[in-house]
Amino acid sequence: xxxxxxxxxxxxxxxxxxxxxxxxxxxxxxxxxxxxxxxxxxxxxxxxxxxxxxxxxxxxxxxxxxxxxxxxxxxxxxxxxxxxxxxxxxxxxxxxxxxxxxxxxxxxxxxxxxxxxxxxxxxxxxxxxxxxxxxxxxxxxxxxxxxxxxxxxxxxxxxxxxxxxxxxxxx
Length: 171
Hints:
It is a single chain. This protein has about 170 residues and is mainly α. The protein is built from 9 helices and 2 strands; from the N terminus they run E-E-H-H-H-H-H-H-H-H-H. A two-stranded antiparallel sheet has the order 1-2. Helix 4 (about 65-80) runs antiparallel to helix 5 and helix 5 runs antiparallel to helix 6.
C-alpha cells in the first residue's frame, strides 16, 4: 500500500485519511476483498477509528466470521462508547451466536443512545419474544413501526406474538 509521489519517485505510506477513504470507497463499490485489505492494513498500522472497526466488523459478519466481527465491533464501541450502530450490530451478532440476553442489553444501549433507532426497537422486540417476555414485545413493534420500519413486517411480528399467546382471530 505505497503511493507514488508525483514530484519524485519516492514511495511514501498513505495517510490515515487516505487509507480510510480508499477502504470506504472499495466497500461502497462492493469490492469487499480490497476493502477488507485496506481496513486490515489500517488496523495493522495501529491506527484507531471507530468507523474502520465497525465497517471491518460488518464485512467479517457478512463473511460469517462472527467471532472476529464481535471483536471488531467491541473495539469500535471502546473507541466511541456512544456509537449506537456498533451496539446494534454487535447485538445482531450475539443474537446469531445464541446469546439472546447479551443481545437484549446491546439493543437497549443502542436505543438509549439513539431513541429513534427503529431497527433496534424491532430487533429488541424479536429478542424479547425469543426470551418469552411477551408483554413488552408488541410495544417494541409498535414503536418500530412508528419510527419507519416496514408496517407489514411489524404487524407480522405482532401476529406471531398473538399466536404465541393463544389469541387467534375467529373467522
